[in-house]
Write a structure and sequence with these properties.
It contains 3 helices and 7 strands; from the N terminus they run βββαααββββ. By secondary structure, it is an alpha+beta fold. The protein has one domain. The model has no long low-confidence stretch (mean pLDDT about 90).
């Protein structure tokens, strides 16, 4: 699925992935050159199978996060909010973070970061940020 990025005054580029509920925004850090071809390929591959990647990310979060403790409801769904395209600090390889919210978790943002591992795209890290 080709992503159509548009520039914002801040230098950030943004594209949208249509879903049944609402469009998911894909953010790319600023810079004149924009995303590299390998970063763009990663984003487009994830966009083409967004439901599959979102479910994989939810499953990855559930391996580590007790939703009862996080928000008070073990059945509360993970809501995909956006995707941030960037680069892994250690390797410099393209990475894409699927960012989720959990109703009842205040201003928490939960990220699952994917990167290419051989022919596959795999989750390799999660983090929680306080917004």
């Amino acid at each position: 699925m080709p992503l159509a990025f548009r520039g914002l005054p801040s230098g950030i580029r943004i594209a949208e992935i249509p879903t049944m509920i609402r469009a998911i925004e894909v953010y790319v850090p600023g810079g004149e050159a924009g995303p590299t071809s390998d970063a763009l390929a990663l984003a487009e591959e994830i966009a083409a199978s967004i439901d599959t990647f979102a479910e994989r990310a939810r499953g990855y979060l559930d391996l580590f996060v007790d939703r009862e403790k996080a928000c008070g409801n073990p059945q509360e769904p993970w809501w995909l909010d956006e995707i941030e395209l960037g680069y892994d600090a250690g390797s410099g390889r393209p990475a894409a973070a699927l960012v989720f919210t959990l109703h009842g978790d205040g201003d928490g943002f939960w990220k699952v970061v994917f990167r290419r591992a051989g022919p596959e795209i795999r989750p390799y890290r999660f983090e929680r940020l306080q917004g």
